């Protein structure tokens, strides 16, 4: 989704902005731009397409000591140069970048901007015209004008504003969209994502909603919209540059798939003590014990991870678990139990749909736990409790290691709560041992990449559609596997409960339709799925099977070592991640940057 970078007090502003924007590329965007200024000199450069296209337009004259840059993922208006950020005020003096959606932008245009000449269709251009008007037509100071505009603007935003006549200060404000201050030596920065700045610094300062920050080269001043000063400490981000590089990998997705055994082991370290006993914050355990129902809210892959943990959470904590799609619940909460607890699963911790649910839950006084990969993210800050995924930055749009880490993290929660409750199954569930087996199992799957690549070539290279089928937990993995395949390879793929095929979907099976069947260790479910496999073969389907060894037959395609049933979604999903990866490669597509998608979805 859109990204913001800004810097003040550094004569390399252009390079810092471009390198920062490159680090934000993974979030997804369709145009980009920078504005840089010195006292008396300024340049605005914008381009549709990649950062490389923007860089190609920048010559040695585009220099400054301060600047703001942006990657845009179109919401209002097509991806054109005029709609790309930064945007300028009517006279060109003020320059603004913005993430989010200004809900009342048309009203603002109608009520305040008569006679103004707008170059594009964006809500952002209206905001900068409004600020410019308050300074140049009403005589307010820049700070007063910014504040006045912030009182009028409704919606979600992260703003970074530069006054080209005084480019020694960046005016910053946020509401619902992420934004951070980065502290350099002798200069300071702003960014929507710490990764954009990690080359320059690992010292950051949070900005909370409805705060305004004045970022100068040697000072940071935080205040609320009424002008009251706010004290804020900086913190050190636990990220380093090597975490966000591709190393020798051709794509981030492959690197992240390969990192999964390490992530499993890191989770064991993070959630156990020196005696190998599971350790989870006692406050979190208590909150779960007090709940009469757990509600898991999430989007996309994180929602699928919720399904994959439902049975384990219910059986080990003796508490019913209900799943909800954040974008649905954000608008309409269903009837809740008397003592609900919300668990928000989110790799980024910034997904706007999930945040909308959390805001409502907080207003209703419902305790909440965020399970996220990003410490200090919005969902982490605003929930009652946080459990971290310890997966390291996930850059590829297609989520892989976060999904498996989400299941493993929730396994630690289920085990800890169950044990505290005296649940027999929880006591007997040797999670550390079982997760170590899973890590080894993933390693063997990863050593079979060539086999998987071969199978995919014949099956998915040219097909228009495909199906994943499975029963029980395999059905949940089928949902995730099909999302992975469709989002990057553009193959229309659905994940089905195998038993449902005959109730409609089987009519789509024709000669050569690829069907990938998942059969983990439950013998009864596997034998029923075998029946469904025969039904689709009889109608011409080309079938590929992924099975656990105890239910394997001679002609199965991918055979995995059996793992504990609670953890089978982790090991079953890995071959499907590789299937999506190779199918996308064979179709000549960009694995890491699928069309129309963004890594962190910060609009509702
Ligand atoms: O950051 P989140 O986990 O909240 O993101 C949720 C979804 O946007 C995300 O999982 C998305 O579905 C991925 N592209 C899937 O690979």
From TrEMBL:
The active site is at 2 (nucleophile), 599 (for fru-6p isomerization activity). Residues 284-423, 456-594 form the SIS domain. Residues 2-218 form the Glutamine amidotransferase type-2 domain. PROSITE patterns: GATASE_TYPE_2 (PS51278), SIS (PS51464). Keywords: Aminotransferase, Cytoplasm, Glutamine amidotransferase, Repeat, Transferase. It is found in: Cytoplasm. Signal peptide: none annotated. The keyword Cytoplasm applies. It holds the Pfam family GATase_6. InterPro entries: GATase_2_dom, GFAT, GFAT_N, GlmS/AgaS_SIS, GlmS/FrlB_SIS, Ntn_hydrolases_N, SIS_dom, SIS_dom_sf. It catalyses: D-fructose 6-phosphate + L-glutamine = D-glucosamine 6-phosphate + L-glutamate. It is an enzyme of class 2 (transferase). Its main location: cytoplasm. Its EC number is 2.6.1.16. Residues 70-89 are annotated as: Disordered. Catalyzes the first step in hexosamine metabolism, converting fructose-6P into glucosamine-6P using glutamine as a nitrogen source. Homodimer. This is Glutamine--fructose-6-phosphate aminotransferase [isomerizing]. The gene is glmS.
